[in-house]
Amino acid sequence: MERKQHQNGRAGLRALASGGGSMCLEQTVSGDDTPYPYEVIKESADFLLSRTKLRPKIGVICGSGLGALAEQLEDRDIFPYDTIPNFPVSTVAGHAGRMVIGTLDGVAVMCMQGRFHSYEGYPLWKCAMPVRVMKLMGVDQLLVTNAAGGINRQFNIGDIMIIKDHINMQGFAGDSPLRGRNDERYGPRFPAMNNAYDRTLRQKTLELVKELGLQDVVREGVYVMLGGPTYETVAELNLLRVVGVDAVGMSTVPEVVVARHCGMRVFAFSLITNMCIIEYETEAKASHTEVIETATMRQKDLQKLARLIIKIMSEDGYEAGDE
Ligand SMILES: O=P(O)(O)O[C@H]1O[C@H](CO)[C@@H](O)[C@H]1O
C-alpha cells in the first residue's frame, strides 16, 4: 500500500552548508570542495527517520532507467529529493529523484530512485552523500545498480554484469569522494579497496541465478567510471580494453568508495544497455535513448535479480565490521 509522498521538507542546514550560516561550522563547509560535516548528514538522516516507521538495513541505488524496482516496494514512504534537507536533486532522464522507503518481500529497504553524477555539476562527495545518510540511518548493506556500455566483446546488450572490481579513473587524477579532512566516525583515512564487492554475495548470487533462469545472461567483470557526459571515443575504448575493463559508465564508484569507507557490505551490477562502438567506419552512435530503452526492456529480470540479492543480504544479516 502506498502511504504518503512527503512534500514539506525544510532547507535545514542547507544554507549553513552552502556558506550562508553564522556559526563556526560555516568556515568548514563553505564550498563544494568540502564534504558536509557529520551534523549536516545527520540532519538528513534524522529527517527521514522521523517520517518513516521502517528501519531499513539494506540500501539500493537505482541506475538509469532502473528505478522501477522502487515501484515494487510495499507500504512505501516517498521523499522527493528536493524535500530532504541538504539533498542534491536529480537532473538526468531516467532518474526520478526520490528516496523510497518500503518493504520488499517483507524486508525493509531504502531505495534511491535516481542518483547524482559528477557531470551534473556535483563534486564526487556530493554524488555519494546519500550513502552516508543511509549509514546514519542504520543501513549496512548496499546494492548498487547502473547502466553501462559493454566493452568486453563476449557481452551482449541486455546482459547483466556482476561487478567484481572497479577502476577509479578519477582517483588516478587525484579526485575522490573522500578528498578532504577524514571523519573517523565513518572510517579510516586510508581505506582498503580490494574485495570492495563482497565475495560471498557474488558467489551466492552466481550459484542462485540458475533458479531465476538468468545463468546465460549474468556475467562478472570490471567496471570503470569516467566523468562523462560524453560517451567514449574509439581510442578511449581501445585504451580501456587494454587495461582490462569490461563495462564503462559514469557513476557507482564514488558511492562504493564511500560505502566501503564506512564499513558497508556492497554488491553491484551493471545492465549492459549498449555495446560500445569500437569501429571508426560506422554511422552508429551511443545514445541515452538506447540506454533507457534497454533498461526498460530488461526491467523484469533486473527486479528478479535485485529481489534475490536482497533476500541473500537479509538472510546473511551483516553488520559493519563483520568481515
Ligand atoms: O550510471 P547510471 O546512473 O545508471 O547512468 C548511466 O547512463 C548515463 C548515460 O547514458 C550515465 O549517467 C551513465 O552513468
Automatic annotation (TrEMBL):
Reaction catalysed by this enzyme: 2'-deoxyinosine + phosphate = 2-deoxy-alpha-D-ribose 1-phosphate + hypoxanthine; guanosine + phosphate = alpha-D-ribose 1-phosphate + guanine; 2'-deoxyguanosine + phosphate = 2-deoxy-alpha-D-ribose 1-phosphate + guanine; inosine + phosphate = alpha-D-ribose 1-phosphate + hypoxanthine
Residues binding phosphate, per UniProt: S64, H95, R115, F116, H117, A147, S251
Listed EC numbers: 2.4.2.1
Species this protein is from: Petrolisthes manimaculis
NCBIfam families: PNPH (TIGR01700), PNPH-PUNA-XAPA (TIGR01697), PRK08202.1 (NF006054)
Family matches, as PANTHER family: METHYLTHIOADENOSINE/PURINE NUCLEOSIDE PHOSPHORYLASE (PTHR11904), PURINE NUCLEOSIDE PHOSPHORYLASE-RELATED (PTHR11904:SF9)
InterPro entries listed in its UniProt record: Nucleoside_phosphorylase_d (IPR000845), Nucleoside_phosphorylase_sf (IPR035994), Pur_Nuc_Pase_Ino/Guo-sp (IPR011270), Purine_phosphorylase (IPR011268)
Every Nucleoside phosphorylase domain range: 57-310
Entry protein name: Purine nucleoside phosphorylase
Pfam families: PNP_UDP_1
GO biological process, one term: nucleoside metabolic process
Family, per entry: Belongs to the PNP/MTAP phosphorylase family.
Job of this protein: The purine nucleoside phosphorylases catalyze the phosphorolytic breakdown of the N-glycosidic bond in the beta-(deoxy)ribonucleoside molecules, with the formation of the corresponding free purine bases and pentose-1-phosphate.
Keyword field: Glycosyltransferase, Transferase
Presence of the UniProt keyword Transferase in the record: yes
Binding-site residues for a purine D-ribonucleoside, renumbered to this chain: E232, N274
Pathway assignment: Purine metabolism; purine nucleoside salvage
Entry GO CC: cytoplasm
GO MF annotation: an example: purine-nucleoside phosphorylase activity
